[in-house]
Amino acid sequence: MTKLPDQALEIARGLPADAQDDIARIVLQLAGTDAAPPVILSDDERTAIAAYAIRQGARDPGGMPGARGPA
Fold this sequence. Notes:
Helices cover 55% and strands 0% of the residues. The chain is mainly alpha-helical and 71 residues long. It has one domain (3-57).
């Protein structure tokens, strides 16, 4: 596992329990490990996620599967 998921988990641990559960559900959906198929993100969604990661101090948002930095 890369450092970025570790950073995300560390940040998530500081959130309220219900927010942690929401994040966990989203990760499971994105990874396709639950009953629902994986979520296919649009280019705009990927860009928004990468921009958020950069604002949060992520060194390499490209390390996130499918993420692209802002154009």
